[in-house]
């Protein structure tokens, strides 16, 4: 009676999410008479034992999970091995769950929890997305100012574009104007991934090149547009300048495209597009109507968007709509299998002090409505507010819905742990969105529990993070050192600091202790695969040590050859095996800008052969926690805090003054990289001077 009264007083018994709905979903399948049971690719033992009506011990034993001293270990058919210390976090592959189900008299069917791709249909209200790309200082932002009538460049820090600028525009044509969403991209080579995102969203890409001649970035954007199969419209700017011939620029462009086609970088030589290249002057407005007419001509007969939103199922399962009659299913398979209501592409992620996490979205399918529930990556939430991407976040600018091709800024995300740029945001019913996000989090946790074997990919993972995925496959300079050798260089040069804080504990020590713990746990379970893996590792380490011993002997031999009359008893010259370490803390405003700065720091590492260690960082303003991290880092090395276009909170300023922490604010990316480059030069110079002084003492 008491239990019944508590259940009736429980307010969450009617909610579609929560523990009550979780148990109801798993137990209602017991009324099904047929033996079929629907399971995803990775099955939680916590759910499986409720459906099989058994206890944890029997279910773990049936699934082949080894439980020893609070540690649970299991493996799959592809050689992956997992380990965790909480039985609620045990996710076994479908093959093991099917064996356990067969043991209890059920027949398992593998079903995909991911929604199916929406059917492509013509939307008359869809507007095209036009991306302006090209080299720096070729007039992209000036062209956007002329088309929109806004003052953009004067409001940008350093009068240079450092992020994607979005504006709605009515393109002038010889007929009716064309309404579109215009994206302006940075022209520097550092922002190639940001350009790749914008080109991926484009229905037409305007490649702006100067009549004075093309640059390397012009080749890069052509390659990116061809990889994403985006129609291209060439625009020859600065045609009104003296001593500039448009035909010469057209011939040079044709030669570059033919050369790239011969090298296999693009699928065609773009001869028709080059013949239809439009000569304009963004400063005076000459040729804008011809440019708009050419864009409208390229859009004729195309279904918007050009790159349609397709949802991939990387697990190869049966669609849920094909087996919707069965009731016995796991908690993540509660949906009807219908496609999402709307699909949006996450273009940028920012963290503000007033509104929290803000996403910049471009709608790719359906209608985005305020108040809808969504799942993006592993995050679940509700759309609290939508605002035009080119306006500020104020109540007067709020919009209720967004159509295909429109760009909006959205609030409602609670955490940035499971969401990033390039993710797809799926608008779904509340129950389906919540259960899908929970399943994705479980699989993401499973990836962290893997201790051995090849990694597995997730269908919702970020797809545009690499240079190849963003349509750029031109190789840079080859790396001179192997990754393992680089890590050994760092270990040989840096002194082991005292472990006074878990935040500054060396990564090498963490990995070593983690490997020892994993090795002990794995050795307790007799496995031939583990022995083979250990043998390969020992063999590889032995070869690596022998190679380094030979290098040290050769360096000592060369030193003795230089100074054969060296006095005995003096210390030998220490071999130059280390690299200077530059530490810093970085905060930026956007994910795209943060990624670009990391790429710039990586280039500085290769240029000066140093190690730039990012102690702490992320998005949003400088908070007192960043100052605490920098204060601890200053005990080992100079560790300033870099704030790129983000404010510094008052509490953080007080902490910085008291603890004597250096905080540097930058609004232009080149200034920040120049400051880090100066630190690299000084570190390399100090190391060279110390080496010279050591040589003079010999």
Automatic annotation (TrEMBL):
Residues 508-519, 526-536 have a biased composition (Basic and acidic residues). Residues 125-306 form the Tr-type G domain. SUPFAM superfamilies: Initiation factor IF2/eIF5b, domain 3, P-loop containing nucleoside triphosphate hydrolases, Translation proteins. InterPro entries: P-loop_NTPase, Small_GTP-bd, T_Tr_GTP-bd_dom, TIF_IF2, TIF_IF2_dom3, TIF_IF2_dom3_sf, Transl_B-barrel_sf. Residues 508-536, 548-573 are annotated as: Disordered. Pfam families: GTP_EFTU (PF00009), IF-2 (PF11987). The keyword Transmembrane helix does not apply. Keywords: GTP-binding, Initiation factor, Nucleotide-binding, Protein biosynthesis. GO terms for cellular component: cytoplasm. Belongs to the TRAFAC class translation factor GTPase superfamily. Classic translation factor GTPase family. IF-2 subfamily. This is Translation initiation factor IF- 2 like protein. It comes from Babesia gibsoni.
């Amino acid at each position: 009676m008491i239990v019944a009264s508590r259940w009736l007083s429980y307010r969450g018994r009617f909610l579609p999410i929560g523990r009550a709905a979780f148990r109801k979903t798993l137990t209602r399948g017991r009324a099904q008479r047929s033996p079929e049971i629907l399971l995803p690719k990775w099955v939680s033992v916590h759910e499986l034992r409720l459906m099989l009506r058994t206890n944890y011990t029997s279910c773990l034993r049936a699934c082949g999970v080894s439980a020893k001293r609070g540690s649970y270990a299991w493996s799959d058919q592809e050689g992956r091995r997992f380990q965790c210390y909480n039985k609620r976090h045990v996710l076994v592959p479908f093959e093991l769950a099917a064996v356990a189900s067969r043991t209890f008299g059920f027949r398992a069917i593998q079903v995909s929890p991911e929604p199916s791709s929406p059917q492509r249909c013509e939307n008359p209200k869809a507007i095209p997305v036009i991306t302006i790309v090209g080299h720096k200082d070729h007039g992209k932002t000036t062209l956007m100012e002329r088309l929109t009538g806004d003052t953009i460049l004067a409001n940008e820090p350093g009068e240079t574009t450092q992020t994607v600028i979005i504006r709605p525009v009515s393109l002038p044509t010889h007929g009716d104007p064309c309404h579109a969403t215009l994206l302006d991209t940075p022209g520097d080579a550092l922002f190639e991934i940001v350009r790749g995102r914008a080109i991926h969203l484009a229905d037409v890409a305007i490649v702006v090149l100067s009549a004075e001649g093309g640059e390397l970035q012009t080749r890069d954007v052509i390659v990116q547009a061809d990889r994403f199969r985006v129609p291209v419209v060439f625009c020859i700017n600065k045609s009104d300048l003296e001593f500039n011939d448009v035909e010469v620029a057209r011939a040079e462009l044709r030669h570059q495209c033919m050369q790239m086609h011969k090298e296999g970088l693009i699928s065609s030589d773009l001869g028709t597009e080059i013949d239809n290249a439009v000569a304009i002057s963004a400063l005076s407005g000459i040729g804008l109507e011809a440019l708009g007419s050419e864009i409208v001509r390229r859009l004729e007969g195309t279904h918007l968007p050009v790159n349609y939103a397709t949802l991939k199922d990387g697990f190869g399962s049966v669609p849920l709509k094909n087996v919707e009659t069965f009731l016995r299913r796991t908690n993540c398979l509660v949906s009807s299998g219908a496609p999402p209501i709307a699909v949006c592409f996450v273009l940028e992620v920012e963290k503000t002090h007033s509104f929290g996490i803000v996403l910049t979205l471009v709608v790719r399918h359906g209608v985005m409505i305020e108040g809808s529930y969504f799942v993006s990556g592993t995050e679940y939430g509700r759309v609290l507010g939508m605002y035009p991407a080119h306006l500020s976040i104020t109540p007067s600018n709020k919009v209720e819905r967004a159509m295909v091709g429109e760009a909006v800024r959205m609030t409602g995300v609670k955490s940035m742990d499971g969401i990033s740029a390039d993710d797809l945001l799926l608008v779904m019913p509340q129950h389906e969105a919540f259960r899908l996000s929970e399943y994705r989090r479980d699989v993401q946790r499973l990836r962290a529990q893997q201790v051995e074997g090849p990694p597995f990919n997730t269908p919702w993972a970020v797809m545009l993070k690499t240079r190849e995925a963003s349509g750029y496959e031109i190789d840079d300079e080859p790396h001179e050192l192997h990754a393992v050798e680089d890590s050994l260089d760092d270990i040989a040069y840096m002194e082991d600091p005292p472990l006074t804080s878990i935040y500054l504990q060396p990564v090498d020590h963490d990995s070593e202790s983690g490997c020892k713990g994993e090795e002990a746990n794995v050795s307790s379970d007799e496995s031939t695969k583990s022995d083979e893996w250990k043998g390969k590792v020992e063999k590889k380490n032995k070869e690596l040590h022998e190679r380094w011993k030979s290098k040290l002997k050769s360096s000592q031999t060369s030193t003795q050859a230089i100074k054969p009359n060296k006095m005995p008893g003096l210390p030998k010259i220490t071999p130059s095996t280390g690299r200077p370490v530059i530490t810093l803390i970085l905060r930026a405003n956007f994910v795209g800008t943060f990624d670009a700065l990391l790429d710039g720091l990586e280039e500085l590492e290769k240029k000066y052969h140093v190690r730039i260690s990012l102690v702490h960082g992320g998005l949003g303003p400088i908070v007192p926690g960043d100052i605490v991290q920098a204060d601890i880092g200053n005990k080992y090395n100079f560790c300033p805090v870099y704030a790129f276009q983000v404010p510094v909170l008052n509490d953080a300023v007080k902490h910085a003054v008291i603890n004597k922490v250096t905080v540097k604010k930058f609004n232009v990316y080149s200034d920040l990289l120049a400051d880090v480059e100066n630190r690299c030069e000084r570190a390399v110079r100090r190391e060279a001077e110390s080496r010279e002084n050591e040589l003079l003492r010999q």
